[in-house]
Amino acid sequence: MPEDFHLERPLFGGALASTFPQRFQDVSNIREVPDHQEVFVDPSRDESLIFEILELKEEVGDDGSASWFLQDLASEQEAEGCVVIEQSAVTEAPGLCYRSTPAVITTAVGQMAISKGRQGREAQNVVRVYIANVRLKEVNTDILISAYEPIRVNPLSESATAVGAGAATPAELSGCTPMVEVFKLAVSTFKVNNWGLFGSV
């Protein structure tokens, strides 16, 4: 289906890249996005995909690092009832090597209640969050890839005007790739084209 055509997208000026459906629009065309983030949204489904470059959190162990970042994200967004549903073991990414050291990746899935923008707690939506932590230790960098999928939209949320209140329509019924698959594709196709982006190279 046309809305689900997958495309390799340049990130951070082409220094990084990842493949995901074309229906996700670059938010920087609409509003300002922090320099360390690339944010893509599908407004018709209120789904989003975020790529973030952070300094390596050396105090956080590889095992369970994605869960740590998930909890950190929840507190940052003042989420309520954050539950980690699953987390992966640590895997190496031979395709993401710098000076023969492969990146390590962990993933986690969680569910939480969060409000959009400046809306208050009374307008919280229940969302599922998929998060991958790609650790590029040789360049002292943590990459976060996070995907947000609404599970239940609050009638008071600004999202309700775009996607309707109540339980979100399953992706399959909309002819779209489910968010879990969008996330897996974005993570598995993530690549570094220019290691110079990380400064310390």
Automatic annotation (TrEMBL):
<dbReference type="GO" id="GO:0005085">
    <property type="term" value="F:guanyl-nucleotide exchange factor activity"/>
</dbReference>
<dbReference type="InterPro" id="IPR007681">
    <property type="entry name" value="Mog1"/>
</dbReference>
<protein>
    <recommendedName>
        <fullName>Ran guanine nucleotide release factor</fullName>
    </recommendedName>
</protein>
<dbReference type="InterPro" id="IPR016123">
    <property type="entry name" value="Mog1/PsbP_a/b/a-sand"/>
</dbReference>
<dbReference type="GO" id="GO:0031267">
    <property type="term" value="F:small GTPase binding"/>
</dbReference>
<keyword id="KW-0813">Transport</keyword>
<dbReference type="GO" id="GO:0005634">
    <property type="term" value="C:nucleus"/>
</dbReference>
<keyword id="KW-0653">Protein transport</keyword>
<comment type="similarity">
    <text>Belongs to the MOG1 family.</text>
</comment>
<dbReference type="GO" id="GO:0006606">
    <property type="term" value="P:protein import into nucleus"/>
</dbReference>
<dbReference type="Pfam" id="PF04603">
    <property type="entry name" value="Mog1"/>
</dbReference>
